[in-house]
Amino acid sequence: MRSVVLTGISRGLGAALFTELTGRGDRVLGIGRRFTPDQVALATAEPERVRLHEAELADPTTVPDADALRAFLTGTGESVLIHNAGVVEPIAPIGQLRETAAVTAVGVNLTAAILLTNAFLAALPADATTRVLFVSSGAAHRVIEGWSVYSATKRGAEMFFDALAVERPDVYVANVNPGVMDTGMQAALRGADFPDRDRYVALYERGELPQPADVARRIISEHVDRAITRE
């Protein structure tokens, strides 16, 4: 059976990934600040298959450690870690950034991903097939005015996972750009003040934002279900 550790499951893409993976019968450890009633009900009904870990990922002390992950992963033949959690705020010019929001963004988008990956690799069962996915953004590779912290943290995390791919050729590693979709993050962008805002408003008004469920199925098909080949 496949065991998946997934962050940021309460809404948007994370909730869609959780629903799709649990619906397929996978074991899932969902990590987040909060959970939906359906997620809590499923974890209560099937505690050996679905587990929830409450964490504020900006606080390193709440990130699951290797012992907690080992308890979940023991005995599995395939282990998957999906870093989905992320925050886009603060959206502002450099010089006007809210310090607390910037610290939170670095903690969630970068530090937590590093720490959780480190613990996950330490907890892996021997000989388990392993995949690590980082949900990134096109903003990691181009400057969007007002998004400096988000872009920098996503770019920094991508470099970390590039290093992981070199250090651990036995692990399937992917930085995944999911593209735009109809989530709370997009709603926040439409309400923010930055030079490129009108583009995101237009995508929403033209109905061109894909649904998170469709994006989740694509990510799973391309990166979780695909066979791993080794040279």
Indicate the low-confidence ranges by residue numbers: none
Report the major sheet. 6 strands, parallel
The termini sit apart by 25 Å
In spatial order, strands of the major sheet run 3-2-1-4-5-6
Shape by Cα distribution: globular
Q: Which percent bin holds the helix content?
A: 40-55%
| Structure annotation, total helices | 8
Question: Multimeric state of these chains?
Answer: single chain
- Approximately how much beta-strand content do the residues carry? 15-25%
Helix/strand-derived category reads alpha/beta
Q: Please write the string of helix (H) and strand (E) elements.
A: EHEHEHEHEHEHHH
Quick description:
This protein is of the alpha/beta class. 45% of the residues lie in helices and 15% in strands.
Reconstruct the topology from this structure.
Layout: E1 2-7, H1 12-23, E2 27-32, H2 37-45, E3 50-54, H3 66-73, E4 78-83, H4 99-123, E5 129-135, H5 148-167, E6 172-176, H6 184-190, H7 197-205, H8 212-224
Parallel strand pairs: 1-2, 1-4, 2-3, 4-5, 5-6
Question: Which keywords apply here?
Answer:
231 residues, alpha/beta, six-stranded parallel β-sheet, 8 helices, 6 strands, 45% helix
What does this structure look like?
There is one protein chain. With 231 residues, this protein is α/β, with parallel strands linked by helices. Helix 1 packs across helix 8 and helix 3 crosses helix 4. The protein is 45% helix and 15% strand. The chain is globular and about 50 Å long. A six-stranded parallel beta sheet has the order 3-2-1-4-5-6, with helices on both faces. It contains eight helices and six strands, in the order E-H-E-H-E-H-E-H-E-H-E-H-H-H.
